Amino acid sequence: MNRRRTRPGRRLLPLLVPLLLLAAACTGQPDDDAAPDREAVPVPGERWRPGPGTSWQWQLSGRLDTSVEAPVYDVDGFDTSREQVAALHRAGRRVICYLSTGAWEEFRPDAAKFPAALLGRGNGWEGERWLDIRRTAELEPLMAARLDMCRDKGFDAVEPDNMDGYANTTGFPLTAEDQLRYNRLIARLARDRGLAVGLKNDLDQIPQLVGDFDFAVNEQCAQYDECERLAPFTAAGKAVFHVEYELPASRFCAQTRKLGFASMQKKYDLGAWRKPC
């Protein structure tokens, strides 16, 4: 299943566009992913803080390919086992736990625990609906349990997704302040468990949230001419993990390398295939 999340208003159209450019070769300097980075080796009891340029692999579909030479793996928190996380650690990798924290997914094992009143409109993907993030008293224990799962499986960090509901048609009158409050709650819950936490997209709120998050995850900032807006993260010594789907690497690698991003070209299904800068 495709679990990619994109910018507001851009969720369905890209799936209709032929992926004519995905075969383009990456240009610029050679790939330096030949071995795990020294900083990627887990240190017990210390929260991970990835720095600019730390390269990564993002796989949310298909059988997990642990042979990809990248020091950081971002994988599905429910579908990835404790044993797989441990194996990645033994290979010197850091591992990020992908979770949807702003939308309900009917296919998750805890789906029945979400009260119906929390569920809003569909978010553009089958079986998924926005959550009423104002109702933190009900959502906090549900999200805390998910983050407990990430911690107990041995993940180093979490990528919380769908964290920009206020900018979408959710069925709830969400405000920017509601979103800031909820995003900070998720960040606190993650850090309380020793997990690093990334801000997914939500470019408009980066100035307010850069201090609350340890890294950023972004989709398609080059395509939409938005990459400069992520500069506060690299200026603070924090990684920006970035992907493009429709642009050939020759169109973005030089720019994002100068910005200190860890960029790569991926296919929309977010399988194992990647073309790093």
TrEMBL record:
Keywords of this entry: Signal
Keyword Transmembrane tagged: no
Residues in Glycoside-hydrolase family GH114 TIM-barrel domain copies: 55-273
Record carries keyword Signal: yes
High-level lineage: Bacteria, Bacillati, Actinomycetota, Actinomycetes, Kitasatosporales
Signal peptide (UniProt feature, chain positions): 1-23
Region (Disordered): 30-54
Entries under PANTHER family matching the protein: ALPHA-1,4 POLYGALACTOSAMINIDASE, PUTATIVE (AFU_ORTHOLOGUE AFUA_3G07890)-RELATED, ALPHA-GALACTOSIDASE
This protein's name: Endo alpha-1,4 polygalactosaminidase
Top-rank taxon, per record: Bacteria
Entry-linked SUPFAM superfamilies: (Trans)glycosidases
